[in-house]
Design goal:
The protein is an alpha/beta fold and about 280 residues long. Helix 9 runs parallel beside helix 10. Bound molecules: zinc ion (ZN). InterPro entries: Glyco_hydro/deAcase_b/a-brl (IPR011330), NODB_dom (IPR002509), Polysacc_deacetylase_ArnD (IPR050248).
Length: about 280
C-alpha cells in the first residue's frame, strides 16, 4: 500500500505530538518527585561533614530531660565524694570502685598530688572514669579563710590536676566546708571571677572520727539518706575503705544510680546557698 503525501505528513505530526507529550509528562513527573524528596528532608539539615544533625538534636533533648529545674539530675542519684587524697589507699579505693562498677568524685589536696608516688593512681582514677576536683594545697583553715589564700591555693591545686591528668577541672571542695569559711561575699566574688565552682555535701558520714568503726559510717549514711539526690562526704581512710562495699550495696538495693560529677552538668550545692558557685 502506498501512502499519499498527506497521510505521511499526518503520521509524522502524530508521532511528533506523542513525543512532545511523553517528554512533557516525564519532565512533570521528574520535578514532582524531586520536590517531594526535598520536602521530606526539611528539618534534617546537613552539617559541614554531610552528616545528618537530627539525631544530635534528639540526643540533646533527651539529655535536657534528665535534669530537674534546679539542675539536679532526674531519678535517684548518689555521688560518692572522697576527700583528702591522693593517699597510700587510693589504689585500693579504685579497686573496690572498679569491682563494683561505680564511678566517684575525688577532691585532692595539692601537697599530696605533688607526691610522685601517688601520681600513677591519680591518672588511673581519670582513666577509670572518676572526676578529680581540687581541695586546696595545704588544707590549712587559717591560710585559706583568714589569710586570703583560698583562690590562689585552689587555682594551684587545679593546675596540678591538669598537669598530671590532662583534664581541666573547675570544681573544688572547701576544706571543712564552705560554712563558715566562705561566708564573706568578697571571697565568693573572687571564686566566681576565677571560674571556680564549690561543692559541699548533703550527707556527712563523719568517717574521719570513726577509726575501726566502719559499721557506724554505714549507719550514719543510711540515717542521712532522705532525698533522691545525695552527695556523700567520705575520706580516704582505712575505716572508709572497709565500709565502702556496704555503702555501695545499700544504694544499689535502694535503686540509686552512682553519679560522677561533670562540669557541664553542674548544679549548685553549697552551704552559703550562693547560686553562682
Ligand atoms: Zn578535707
Amino acid at each position: 500500500m502506498k501512502l499519499s503525501r498527506n497521510n505521511k505528513k499526518r503520521i509524522f505530526k502524530t508521532v511528533l505530538s506523542l513525543g512532545i507529550l511523553l517528554t512533557t509528562a516525564f519532565l512533570v513527573y521528574f520535578s514532582i518527585s524531586k520536590f517531594n524528596s526535598t520536602s521530606a528532608k526539611e528539618g534534617v539539615k546537613e552539617n559541614s561533614e554531610g552528616a545528618l544533625e537530627q539525631p544530635k538534636e534528639k540526643e540533646k533533648i533527651e539529655h535536657e530531660k534528665k535534669k530537674k529545674p534546679d539542675g539536679k539530675p532526674e531519678g535517684k542519684v548518689v555521688y560518692l565524694t572522697f576527700d583528702d587524697g591522693p593517699s597510700t589507699l587510693t589504689g585500693q579505693f579504685l579497686d573496690v570502685l572498679k569491682e563494683q562498677k561505680v564511678k566517684a568524685t575525688f577532691f585532692m589536696i595539692g601537697k599530696n598530688l605533688q607526691n610522685a608516688g601517688f601520681q600513677e593512681n591519680v591518672k588511673r582514677a581519670i582513666k577509670e572514669g572518676h572526676y578529680i576536683g581540687g581541695h586546696s594545697m595545704t588544707h590549712d583553715s587559717k591560710r585559706l579563710y583568714t589569710d586570703g589564700q583560698f583562690v590562689p591555693e585552689m587555682k594551684e591545686a587545679l593546675e596540678l590536676i591538669r598537669n598530671i591528668t590532662g583534664t581541666n577541672p573547675t570544681l573544688v571542695r572547701s576544706p571543712y566546708g564552705s560554712a563558715p569559711g566562705l561566708k564573706d561575699q568578697q571571697i565568693r566574688d573572687q571564686i566566681v571571677e576565677a571560674g571556680i565552682k564549690v561543692w559541699d555535701w548533703t550527707i556527712d558520714s563523719r568517717d574521719w572520727e570513726l577509726k575501726d568503726n566502719p559499721n557506724q559510717i554505714v549507719e550514719n549514711i543510711k540515717k542521712g539518706t532522705t532525698d533522691d539526690v545525695e552527695v556523700i562526704l567520705v575520706h580516704e581512710k582505712p575505716q572508709t575503705l572497709q565500709a565502702l562495699p556496704e555503702i555501695i550495696k545499700y544504694y544499689k538495693e535502694k535503686g540509686y544510680e552512682f553519679g560522677v560529677y561533670q562540669d557541664v552538668d553542674h548544679f549548685h550545692l553549697n552551704f552559703q546557698k550562693d547560686a553562682r558557685l
